[in-house]
Amino acid sequence: MRVVLVGPPGAGKGTQAQFIASNLSIPKISTGDIFRANVSGGTELGKLAKEYMDRGDLVPDEVTVAMVRDRLSEPDAQEGFLLDGFPRNVPQAQILNKMLAEFGTHLDVVLELVVDDEEVVRRLAGRRTCRSCGKVWHVVFDPPTKEGVCDACGGALFQRDDDREETIRHRLEVYQQQTAPLISFYADEGILRGVEATGPVEEITARAMAELRGFAD
Fold first, then answer.
1. What's the CA angle centered on 120, arms 9 and 3, to 5 degrees?
2. Which of 5, 114, 130, 146 lies 20 to 30 A from 80 at CA?
3. Residues noted as catalytic
C-alpha cells in the first residue's frame, strides 16, 4: 500500500507514521530522514542540500523531489511506502503523482490526522526540555516530580522558542495556508481519509488502520 500522511504540527505524525508503517510492513519515509541520509552519506544531492542549509536557505523543491525520487526507487519501497512530510503543497503533490506514474503505480490513500488548533497548542506549549540531557517533559501529560527540574538528570527545564504559543499559532496559520489546498486536492481525487487524532496513541493507530482496511476493501 502507498500512503501519504498529513496533519498539522503536534498531530502526532511522527509517532503514527512509525506505527502505521510497522502494521503495514512498509517503510516509513520522511523528508527529514531522507535529508539526513543524503547529507551524512555525502551524496551529490546531500552536498547540494547542505550548501543551502549551511547558508540558512530553504532547500529548493527540485532537490527535495530528486531525493524523494531516489528513495522511492529503492528496493524496500517497491511494494509500498508511507510518506511523512512530502508532499507539502499542491505542486509537490502533482510532481509525486507524475513520478509514481513513471514508476507504473499510484497513491492508494492519503490519511489526514485531524486535530483542532487548541489541542495542538495545548500539546506543544506544555512541552519542557531538559538543558542537560534533552529529555522532553510535559506540564500536563508527563510532568516531572519537581516543577522545572528533570527527573532523569536533575537538569533545568526550559520551553523552546518553537514551543511558545505565539510561535505555534503562526506555524498553524502557515500549515493552513499551504496544506488546506493539498487536502482539497486529494479529496477531489477521492483518496483522502480523515482520522480523529485525539486520544491515546494506540486508539489513534487503531482508527487509522480501520480507515486503511476500509479503503482497501
1. 45
2. 114
3. 13, 88, 127, 160, 171
3-state helix vs strand vs coil in the chain, percent to 5? 55, 15, 30
Cell (9 digits) for 63: 532537490
* 12 is known to lie in a ligand binding site: yes
Query: Mind listing the pLDDT tens digit for each residue in 105-159?
Result: 999 999 999 999 999 999 999 999 999 999 999 999 999 999 999 999 999 999 9
Q: Give residue 101's identity as a one-letter amino acid code.
A: A
> Which of 192, 166, 134 has its CA nearest to residue 7?
192
CA 113-206-143 angle, to 5 degrees, is 70
Q: Cβ distance 82 to 28 under 8 Å?
A: yes
Query: Do residues 16 and 204 lie in contact, with contact meaning Cβ atoms separated by under 8 Å?
Result: yes
Q: What is the 3-state secondary structure (H, E, C) of 131-165?
A: CCCCCEEECCCECCCCCCECCCCCCEEECCHHHCH
Is 31 marked within a binding site?
Answer: yes
| CB hemisphere CA count around 106 (13 angstroms) | 7
The one-letter amino acid at 128: R
CA 136/CA 47 separation, integer angstroms: 31
